[in-house]
Amino acid sequence: MGVYEELVARGLIAQVTDEKEIRDLVNNGKAVFYIGFDPTADSLHVGHFMALCLMKRLQLAGNKPIALIGGGTAMIGDPSGRTDMRQMMTKETIEHNCDCFKKQMAKFIDFSDDKAMMVNNADWLLDLNYVELLREVGACFSVNNMLRAECYKQRMEKGLSFLEFNYMIMQSYDFYALYQKYGCNMQFGGDDQWSNMLGGTELIRRKLGKDAYAMTINLLLNSEGKKMGKTQKGAVWLDANKTTPFEFYQYWRNVDDADVVKCLKMLTFLPLEQIEEMAKWEGSELNKAKEILAYELTKMIHGEDEANKAQEGARALFGGGANTDNMPTTEITDSDFTDGGIAVLDLLLKCKLISSKGEGKRLIQQGGISVDDQKITDMFHNVTKDAFEKGHVIIKKGKKVFHKVTL
Q: What's the CA gap between 264 and 261, in Å, rounded?
């Protein structure tokens, strides 16, 4: 089985421009491909994880990845999947985020000995002359076709700014520039980028008379059709300072039964034969599959030691043990107490386990909050200093979220 056939078997491929040519290129290690990452935050997140896995799979098959950091396109903002306009970022923020991305990618992709490249589209986009761009590139785009593009549909409902309208041209120009500079013959990305990617292949064809190819991968969706990688606290980040290895492990350990096999296929490097065997598991065996998924992904992002710690901590909690060393932790001080106690709703807010007191009240009414295994039934309950006799208390939210509070 070639790498292309494996991508198909793992359910990764969504759309391709020319299946025969793409299969030949990637199976024979002849693809010089790029995936773009707009630095809209100071860390990559689970949404980027699929792209990183794809880059690694193709690199292991002898193909050359180009990680394109969107220091230029981030000045505009991708309208794909948006109902509102993205917040404008300063150049300083974009540069900082780019640096953070580079450090994280270098842990995942092998950039040694010219096996991969990392470039920033700010190097060419920020120096473009507007009139020259209009003359050189603008004539290659049909406004009618652009307005039909999926990436603009949601924004059209509330009003698409001219700034955002240019995003497709910028991304297309990236492919054109990379083709000329580095011989980049393929672009890969999420399925929501299809229209932008076709713009790039068409620009190369019209300007250079050459063929280039595009392939999209399926977005990581749960069984309800919603994007995975979101929690109540926000995105699941790859930066350990934003999402701890324990929290990262717990996210994957808690995926729905219906999603575990799909995640194993799309995100891990376990052999397909092994995953197909796991697909036959039922009942309590599914928990074992979830442990394998969580361990493999945590090891890939945070290393084997952190994966072992996260797994031991999770097993101790679910098994009634007392290993809390790697649990997400919030520290409080004497100043947080009034008359020797802190209101449980205030404590939940401080730990960021709830976004509002209204949410906290509903959870307590539903029996969803425990402190040191004691279910809280009174929304006005105070957690006293005496509860911290051993130095900490453990808050349990629902069945699967644990949080340590230290004093």
A: 5
